[in-house]
Design goal:
heterodimer, A: 317 residues, B: 277 residues, MetI-like fold, 15 helices, 0% strand, disordered N terminus
Chain lengths: 317, 277
């Protein structure tokens, strides 16, 4: 969950009312002063708290920090350490695993959105509320609740597994399973968000496509695979990239469900967890800044990839 | 599903699938609720307790006794209100300027705003921490909300909303001699209210749920928000599940209420911008 809300991609091709003709801007007199006045708070705030800090972080990534806050230029030293650091390697592998498992939420949420969009479907508002609830719920509370569900001795999940003859592991302390537990919570928490994106995507598909398919004798399932899914490709791309970016950003669940003292931490830590641990628990600002730059590059590459791939692969109908 | 007396339910299979999914989505919440009212013994029994024998309201008083929990809820509330008011107000001003005015350097400035939205917010944290340190604001309420009052994303979102408003009203007002300030406050702002509410709800959710920044700036329990408070509650009551669940429930309830009340605006804001909720 980002607090400053990183919009990571261009707006979705949403419902028609969003895609109006561009109007010419009204020619206003003496706009200069007014514009400056209106822009000042936002521009000043962003300059002080976001734009300048971005450059500072990039600069810090080339410095070495002493224990008492001073820092000296150290060139590529942090990056060399970074490349050789097994924790960074783990974080990247963990991110890849979390992303891959979280992708399960994509087909699930497409099906959910398609079922909710059936003509004459009732109770959609209630379903939408229930499915979206995990998205808005305090991640710290979510982490504690799932930690109890996954508890090896008293957890509901292992009890349910024992009912079907499976002896469940100590999910969160076992290095082999902890990452799967976290990823399952990730899937649970992202279905609702994906659903909203897909609902608006489906809403934008012209109804006559379905009517024409109906006349040709295509059933609901065939319509789903031949109309809904292909025309949703822009949304699917968008959600896929968001899923990877969120996996990259995973922190709350790792911090609260696994934590520093667990034997499973190296198998679950992510780049943001590493950033927090090195920068604020161990006060190695230079190294943390380098991790931050890595995060920045990864995010920019993903966003750029999204733009390029969309141009090449996507049906806009 | 209640069958209406006149018609049978359409799409029974679809409802079946969606209901099974809904159980998976809501199950953890029900489990949290049930456990928060159990005794410790019930919470670690095998087979698990589904319905508490008698409701243990004492778990709540334990939570409020273990932490300055009430104070932390107030901290979270203050942090959420300040960030939301700041982001919505400043984004509305800047969004209006970008959408409706012409000035030199507009393209460049907008490109800068747009680039900022692509930077993951962890990149700002280290320098923001230093700013707070220099201002002597570590472990204060102000540190929780000050950097979070500005948002390039919000500006972008509200600019989109302002651009959709019809020009005619604005022109009519101008012909009647209204200046830009009057047009903005009296006409544009009320018309952009849906967009501002959508942004507001998003910011409320992000602020309420934020954990990383509070961990970084405020280690003092009385200055923590409730998200960080839950982390320390877990430190104290590692396996006292009823207490942990009671804390989780109380800490997450307010934002769930906000979500249920404003869900339409929230969904439209998310669909419109494609942003993480």
């Amino acid at each position: 969950m980002t607090s400053s809300g990183t919009a990571t991609a261009p707006a979705e091709p949403v419902a028609e009312e969003m895609v109006r003709r561009r109007r010419p801007r009204p020619p206003t007199q003496d706009s200069g002063w007014w514009a400056a006045l209106l822009l000042l708070p936002a521009a000043a705030g962003l300059a002080i708290f976001e734009i300048w800090p971005t450059f500072q972080t990039i600069y810090y990534s080339f410095t070495s920090w002493g224990a008492f806050g001073g820092h000296v230029w150290s060139g590529l030293e942090n990056y060399r350490t970074l490349i050789a650091d097994s924790d960074v390697f783990h974080a990247i592998v963990n991110t890849a695993i979390i992303s891959a498992i979280s992708m399960l939420a994509v087909p699930l949420s497409i099906v959910v959105a398609a079922l909710m969009s059936l003509p004459g479907m009732r109770g959609v508002t209630i379903y939408r509320t229930l499915y979206f609830l995990p998205v808005v719920t305090l991640p710290a509370a979510v982490a504690l609740t799932w930690k109890y569900l996954f508890n090896g001795d008293y957890g509901l999940i292992n009890w349910l597994l024992s009912k079907v003859g499976v002896d469940g592991p100590h999910w969160l302390s076992d290095p082999a399973t902890a990452i799967f537990a976290i990823s399952i919570v990730g899937v649970w928490g992202s279905i609702g968000y994906n659903m909203v994106i897909f609902l608006s995507g489906i809403h934008g598909i012209p109804l006559d496509y379905y009517e024409a398919a109906e006349l040709d004798g295509a059933g609901r399932v065939s319509q789903f695979f031949h109309i809904t899914v292909p025309l949703l490709t822009p949304s699917i791309f968008f959600v896929t990239v968001i899923t990877v970016i969120n996996s990259l950003q995973a922190f709350d669940l790792v911090y609260l469900m696994v934590g520093q003292t667990s034997p499973a931490i190296t198998r679950t830590e992510t780049l943001v967890y590493l950033f927090y641990q090195r920068g604020f628990a161990e006060h190695d600002g230079g190294y943390a800044a380098a991790v931050g730059v890595l995060l920045l590059l990864a995010t920019l590459i993903l966003t750029a990839a999204q733009f390029r791939l969309q141009r090449r692969w996507v049906h806009y109908g | 599903m209640a069958e209406s007396s006149k018609r049978r339910v359409r799409h029974p299979i679809a409802h079946l699938v969606l209901c099974v999914g809904a159980i998976f989505m809501v199950g953890p919440f029900l489990w949290q609720l049930s456990t928060s009212l159990q005794t410790f013994g019930e919470s670690v029994s095998v087979p698990p307790t589904f319905v508490p024998h008698s409701l243990q309201w004492s778990n709540l008083s334990t939570v409020f006794g273990a932490l300055p929990f009430g104070r932390e809820l107030l901290n979270t509330t203050a942090m959420t209100i300040a960030r939301t008011v700041g982001q919505v107000l400043f984004s509305a001003l800047a969004g209006f300027a970008f959408a409706r005015m012409r000035f030199r350097g507009q393209g460049v400035l907008f490109a800068v705003f747009l680039s900022v939205t692509m930077v993951p917010y962890q990149v700002f944290l280290l320098p923001q921490y230093q700013i707070m340190q220099r201002l002597g604001l570590l472990n204060t309420l102000v540190a929780l909300f000050l950097p979070g009052m500005f948002s390039a994303f919000g500006t972008f979102l509200l600019r989109q909303f302002f651009r959709q408003l019809p020009l005619e009203i604005e022109e009519a007002a101008r012909i009647d001699g209204a200046n830009i300030g009057q047009i903005f406050w009296r006409i544009m702002l009320p018309m952009a209210a849906p967009g501002m509410i959508a942004l507001g709800v998003l910011v409320v959710i992000w602020s309420w749920n934020d954990l990383l920044w509070p961990l970084v700036v405020n280690s003092e329990p009385r200055q923590m928000p409730v998200s960080a408070g839950l982390a320390s509650l877990q430190g104290q009551y590692t396996t006292n599940f009823p207490v942990l669940m009671a804390g989780s429930l109380v800490a997450s309830l307010p934002v769930i209420v906000v979500f249920v009340v404003f869900q339409r605006q929230l969904m439209s804001g998310i669909a419109f911008s494609g942003v993480k909720g």
